[in-house]
């Protein structure tokens, strides 16, 4: 069930020029992420607000949508225009979204 106070968009409706903020942890990011995404783990968000990508809105993504919903709520409360990506990287991968990994392994969603 989604929270109506948190703006959300399905992967299928993301604009082609969407500014993605990936808030998963380092091991998840390394295993596979969207090529154009910016990585700021949720656990480091408060200390790394200056590292947020410039975009209006910023589309926030995690593995399944839970952490990104919390980050979206936080950012919107603090003056950003953020939108949660429903289903996260799991939905991204299922929809055939491009992914890259760090290292020789094929990209995957952890």
UniProtKB/TrEMBL annotation:
Gene3D superfamilies linked to this entry: Rhodanese-like domain
SUPFAM superfamilies: Rhodanese/Cell cycle control phosphatase (SSF52821)
UniProt superkingdom: Bacteria
Residue span(s) of domain Rhodanese: 14-101
InterPro entries to which the protein is assigned, alphabetical: GlpE_sulfurtransferase (IPR050229), Rhodanese-like_dom (IPR001763), Rhodanese-like_dom_sf (IPR036873)
Signal peptide positions (record): none
PANTHER family named in the record: FAD-DEPENDENT OXIDOREDUCTASE (PTHR43031), PYRIDINE NUCLEOTIDE-DISULPHIDE OXIDOREDUCTASE (PTHR43031:SF1)
Name of the protein this chain belongs to: Rhodanese-like domain-containing protein
Lineage: Bacteria, Bacillati, Actinomycetota, Actinomycetes, Nakamurellales
